Amino acid sequence: MSLVQTLHFSKDANASEIMAHPDSFRLRYFQIFTLGQTCRDMLAFAGAKWEDTYPSDWMAEKTTTPFECLPILYIRKDNKELMISECTPIEHYLARQLGFLGKNQYEETLIMSFHSSSSSLLSTFGNFVVWNQPEVRDKCYNYFKQSLLTRWITNHEMHLVDNGSNGHYITLADIKTANVIEIFICQPDGNELAIQFQNSPALWKVYETVTKHPLLADWRSCESFKKLEQNTKLCYKDPRAYVRRPRVVAN
Amino acid sequence: MSLVQTLHFSKDANASEIMAHPDSFRLRYFQIFTLGQTCRDMLAFAGAKWEDTYPSDWMAEKTTTPFECLPILYIRKDNKELMISECTPIEHYLARQLGFLGKNQYEETLIMSFHSSSSSLLSTFGNFVVWNQPEVRDKCYNYFKQSLLTRWITNHEMHLVDNGSNGHYITLADIKTANVIEIFICQPDGNELAIQFQNSPALWKVYETVTKHPLLADWRSCESFKKLEQNTKLCYKDPRAYVRRPRVVAN
């Protein structure tokens, strides 16, 4: 297999051809939910041929990635492997490729708007709470729960009611929203947050529609998923744990 | 004109048709750079028919928007006006519509990757520095400058050198990157940051290529742009100022 360098983006003139007709995918992300789970769910749901891989020594690997961060997606076709980087473009590509992006431009834009709102909530949680200075983390978490999270729940509930409270159809937006809820349930006070989500029945229905879909429920029952969930639960207490500790490469 | 409700998304069956063949645009955002400037630059560069509008009383207007936040873009065609929400989907739509999204799927994905890296830097700055608890803001700003900003500069410089240090061609990624640099130059220590950017000549060339392009230089010389710049400079000291103070609607 002709491997592209990971640090630099490919200049292969056939890159778009590889993207349009891939044989298989290889995701590289840490062994937690956070920015990897929506790709994993789409790949699992679509029945794609894919591998879930984790860095064994992130500090050594970090400077070999385009922006010193993960996720990265490797797209394989014949004897070639193309690398793309950054969570939202990867999710947008997979959603388009695997059929989670709606039927027309307006639907795509609506899906990406909901996706953006849910992704932003998660990145605000990361920057303002999880990775904040230790002396203000709990204060920020309380503010986040009372203000930003509550507002997000109210707004999404309203739009889902507008859409007939039907648990939506499975799109990138639904999977991202379900993943974000799943991540919050892994946090301290996760049980209380779960009740808050359940009190918005249209929102909770999206969560249940995604996570109880037979293909995604099946993937949620496997050991590798449970390990991701377990690691995600440890993140609040020690956000650097999954970076600092060398871990076994899964694939 | 048949105005759609702003709070709820439209169910107009012709929404995609309006998006594909717009007559004009109306942007709604605060009177600062932050999440409005990339749209403004694309619209100015493309010579589109557009209006730049600001809320006069944001606290009253807030709950009439889909996610209680701005920007929102109104897309006008004939007697109809369609609303779309969230910064990245709006920028992606305008980039596609106005020709800033590359020639093929791989170029689009690369452009959106650079865009994502630059947007994330800005949102991290917002959540981790500007909107953080007062007692840790300066400490966080120092960490941000030494670590995250420096890493972003190094990585982008490398990719721009890969691309021939040509100041790139004008795409969504270039405009977003130039805007992010422009915003950092408005911060405390902005002069020092400017020198840091200048020391990465391929990156600085992108900034100069965008901001000195005749169409964008022209827009930068007008009074309304200068007011945006002035307000952006006040944000670090008092991030809530542009929300709290009622302001005159520009259009």
From TrEMBL, chains A, B:
Q: Which SUPFAM superfamilies match?
A: GST C-terminal domain-like (SSF47616), Thioredoxin-like (SSF52833)
Signal sequence segment = none
Query: Where would you find the membrane-spanning parts of this chain?
Result: none
What's the source species for this entry?
Lunasporangiospora selenospora
Q: Which PROSITE patterns match?
A: GST_NTER (PS50404)
Query: Which residues belong to any copy of the GST N-terminal domain?
Result: 23-102
Official protein name in the record: GST N-terminal domain-containing protein
| UniProt lineage | Eukaryota, Fungi, Fungi incertae sedis, Mucoromycota, Mortierellomycotina
Under InterPro entries, the record lists: Glutathione-S-Trfase_C_sf (IPR036282), Glutathione_S-Trfase_N (IPR004045), GST_superfamily (IPR050213), Thioredoxin-like_sf (IPR036249)
Any one GO molecular function term: glutathione transferase activity
Offer one example of a GO biological process linked to this entry: glutathione metabolic process
